[in-house]
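Tutorial handout. Part one gives the primary structure; part two gives the three-dimensional structure as tokens.
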Amino acid sequence: MNETVDRYLQAGTRANTRRSYQQAIEHFEVSWGGFLPATSDSIVRYLVDHAGTLAANTLKLRLAALAQWHVTQGFPDPTKAPLVRQVLKGIRTLHPKPEKRAEPLQLRELEQCVAWLEREGEAARVAGDHPRLLRCWRDRALLLIGFWRAFRSDELCRLRVEHIQARAGEGMQLFLPWSKGDRDNQGQTFSAPALARLCPVAAYLDWVEVAEVTDGPVFLGIDRWGHLSKQALHPHSVIPLVRAVLLNAGLPAELYSSHSLRRGFATWATRSGWDQKALMDYVGWRDTKSALRYIESTGQFPGQLRPVTGLESK
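Part two.
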């Protein structure tokens, strides 16, 4: 009975959140030498000791982990003490740190990456290099779906073939049983357009055809011999994958991360005239603050894509 309850309790918390919280608890107990259950005084000392080295947002995450541990273990939550909150506020004031943000992948840069992948893919096809063709077509589909749907890396890695309906020249529907914005785990269906160029639908159909993938995860690992893994790509592998494509396409890869796709789409949509509500609805943001963090407001993108269907400038 307890094992069953634990399984459902774990399912109620995101895997990434569980890992972050576990690392935070280990840092407090093992690295810093704190004791659990903790007192508000020890929490304050912990914050002060790391005030100059950890960002305030990181410390806030550590407090959330400690709070959850105390609540689930049946202890009073020491992080709610007024002194703790005041000290955290003081750290924000005395140790301001700019938030690190990935560079948005602009449309022209996405086009440069896709052009390189298509040249490499066609060369691999002519040469009979099936492993290289697989990697090119997988990476192209990942970049284009990731950009036009503004998906996070973990969302890309959780896409499954049986949850996608794609029609060439029309569009595609992608279902995710849960996502960060879907806090009640109701599941969400996302649409992506068929485009005259940089088309996510065509890229997806090319990938599943050449890979002969009919069910299971969409984006799979590929070994040097072209064998497909049965497991989906790990979210942490998306950043090196994206950077490798950028580097080969002649772009400064170190400036970008998997968030660059999400930020790139948000920036493109804003410069293309989408209003804030339309962008928030499309991406799945619930609050304005989240949306603004992803939008690069300077400059103008010269030109528009001509969509086959959908994704017109709002």
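Part three, for discussion. The chain has a mean pLDDT of 86. Residues 107-127 form the longest helix (21 residues).
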